[in-house]
């Protein structure tokens, strides 16, 4: 049992409840601030002011929107399954809140005379808890689409299930190299293992795979295909309103905060101070309440990255998105794990020096990047019956449908003798007008 686990085991009940309350308030406040920051930052990127009326700099706009959602009419479709329709938002939001419990925010501190660690719980399998919560959260999305009784939410939920499963595999593979170098699945143990150096420098490819996977895992742009309004109206939450819709919205942004905090924990040293502050005064900035500031700063930087992506990149096509997950990230992650295993084994046996280790790692990364960008995609063979559309190169259905010719229009023309002429000047039978 680690030192952190021993401290947390001795926490009194009031301290545990206080930590739970602080985590809940922190996640809700971070959601409100992230929504505000997203609207302001993207507004600046698009040369418009963004929200600036409710409160100073528009800070109260997210709170006003949340209150408006609470007082909106709650509508339930006639064909919806009542209980599943009600439970789906809860199933989606609850795991998002639980997964943050294993994230270490800071080192040992004293709270009201009680020595404790700034973490709710330290489990030997903390990383698996995060993956399990992400897996359970997708059930809420799938059930929401199925229980709505509408085809568009169902399609959106199926997309989300395929998306989350695909990118969870890549995310899990990005953890393997971190676990190998830290020797533990505990989040606090991984932070302690980065005392001498952050893992994003030692394992850059794992870091890159995790960054791509966390964007796909949270259904954020440019991977927001389950909510693609161009073909799915609003995705899995099309039929939701009021507080139920607010829970889905809350779950999305809490997941953003959680994956950002996890990225900080795994690759950016967690609550450790950045260089050169970590060298000042024998690590004085790594003690007390200073580490909370470093942790929040790194997490906010990842949240800004989410916002930056949304304001910069267009949405991918679904086939491009799935190809990236299954044909690029997963195979290259497996190759990276094998390479890291071989290099680490050689280094442990002192068969290679540190310089040779860095050179070998650079060569492996270069090969992986070359395999990513230089290998052309295999295109499916064209069907013989398909005719390419002129100037586009995309196949179209066979053009064998014959449109019948329009018959000549019968234009009644009254003759001077009281008769009506038929088509092409023929004389129509008497009495037809």
Features:
NADH dehydrogenase activity, two-stranded antiparallel sheet, 14 helices, NADH_UbQ_OxRdtase_su1_CS, 433 residues, transmembrane helix, NADH_UbQ_OxRdtase_su1/FPO, single chain, mainly alpha, quinone
Structure description:
The protein is mainly alpha-helical. The protein has a domain at 74-115 and 122-316. The protein is built from 14 helices and six strands. The protein has helices at residues 3-9, 13-45, 61-70, 82-98, 126-147, 151-182, 187-193, 199-202, 204-217, 229-232, 242-267, 290-312, 318-348, 354-374; strands at 106-111, 114-118, 387-388, 395-396, 413-414, 420-421. The strands form three sheets. Strands 1-2 form a two-stranded antiparallel ribbon. The chain has a two-stranded antiparallel sheet with strand order 3-4. A two-stranded antiparallel sheet has the order 5-6. Helix 3 (61-70) crosses helix 11 (242-267). The longest helix has 33 residues, at 13-45. It is globular. Residues 383-387 have low confidence and may be disordered.
In brief, what are we looking at here?
It is a multi-pass membrane protein. Helix content is 58%, strand content 4%.
Task: Outline the secondary-structure elements.
Layout: H1 3-9, H2 13-45, H3 61-70, H4 82-98, E1 106-111, E2 114-118, H5 126-147, H6 151-182, H7 187-193, H8 199-202, H9 204-217, H10 229-232, H11 242-267, H12 290-312, H13 318-348, H14 354-374, E3 387-388, E4 395-396, E5 413-414, E6 420-421
Antiparallel strand pairs: 1-2, 3-4, 5-6
Helix pairs in contact: 2-11, 2-12, 3-11, 4-5, 4-11, 5-6, 6-7, 6-9, 6-13, 9-11, 9-13, 11-12, 13-14
